[in-house]
Design brief:
It comes from Sutcliffiella horikoshii. Part of the ABC transporter FtsEX involved in cellular division. The protein is an alpha/beta fold. The chain has seven helices and ten strands. The chain folds into two domains: about 150 residues, 3-Layer(aba) Sandwich (Rossmann fold); about 70 residues, no CATH class. The strands form two sheets. It has a six-stranded mixed β-sheet with strand order 6-7-8-3-9-10. A four-stranded antiparallel β-sheet has the order 2-1-4-5. Bound molecules: adenosine-5'-diphosphate (ADP) (2 copies).
């Protein structure tokens, strides 16, 4: 589902953020990306949804070669990849319903299908009753659940999450993880950068550790592996 070959990324300021990465992630896998701050985790996952372009190397997502992808096709790619951020990135002036519906309105789904699908994903994250609320009327955990709902409304094959529990308390973080597990069990491939040792060591998944832009470790059912 995700394949990187000899991927390098040097930012214009000269920082070599990713320094020769080769990786294969199969459909349906759940992968944690761990490592120290500044190791290159965000850069690594941003390249998967074309937020950043590699300086060299090839990245193929679900058969699409991102290096050859025209700028005009990037929105199409994004539709097939759900992205969840640490800081939610909901649109503050839109209701919960509208935030989630947005991605479907862009592709001109029928209003009937939009409503059905939005309610389906709000139900999955247990927030149907908050559909009319604005994001700032919700707790952090609720906002993250809405951002997860938004990310899967298009039924993407791949979900990318960059420290999705980074701003949440432990109980809320576990609730969020339950939702990710449920989504993964339905077949979606998940790649999640995280600093949450407890979660990585409890909900065992493949662990890819990045240090200095390189893969330092790649283990099935791995540990977090860093001291506090
Ligand atoms: P991590 O997610 O592991 O903290 P990042 O991928 O954010 O690591 O950063 C890796 C390195 O690249 C760091 O040295 C960081 O300062 C640098 N970096 C990240 N984004 C940019 C950018 N847009 N421009 C220049 N340097 C950047
Ligand atoms: P159900 O079919 O589960 O009863 P409802 O149709 O009652 O769902 O809608 C649940 C919530 O979603 C309500 O708060 C409703 O106002 C909101 N909602 C439904 N459709 C829209 C829409 N098109 N735009 C904005 N909010 C909507």
């Amino acid at each position: 589902m995700i394949e990187m070959q000899d991927v390098y990324k040097k930012y214009p300021n000269g920082v070599q953020a990713v320094d020769g990465i080769n990786i294969r992630i199969k459909a349906g896998e759940f992968v944690y990306v761990v490592g120290p701050s500044g190791a290159g985790k965000s850069t690594f996952i941003k390249m998967m949804y074309r937020e950043e372009k590699p300086t060299s190397g090839s990245i193929v997502i679900d058969g699409v070669n991102l290096s050859k992808l025209k700028e005009s096709k990037v929105p199409l790619l994004r539709r097939n990849i759900g992205v969840v951020f640490q800081d939610f990135k909901l649109l503050p002036q839109l209701t919960v319903y509208e935030n989630v519906a947005f991605a479907l309105e862009v592709i001109e789904e029928s209003p009937k299908n939009i409503k059905k699908r939005v309610m389906e994903v709000l139900d999955l994250v247990k927030l149907k009753h908050k559909a009319r609320h604005l994001p700032n009327e919700l707790s952090g955990g609720e906002q993250q659940r809405i951002s997860i709902a938004r990310s899967i409304v298009n039924k993407p094959k791949v979900m990318i999450a960059d420290e999705p529990t980074g701003n949440l308390d432990p109980d809320t973080s576990w609730e969020i993880m339950n939702i990710f597990e449920e989504i993964n069990e339905k077949g979606t491939t998940i790649v999640m950068a995280t600093h949450n040792r407890e979660i990585v060591n409890t909900i065992k998944k493949r662990v890819i550790a990045i240090e200095n832009g390189k893969i330092a470790r790649d283990q099935a059912e791995g540990d977090y592996g860093y001291e506090a």
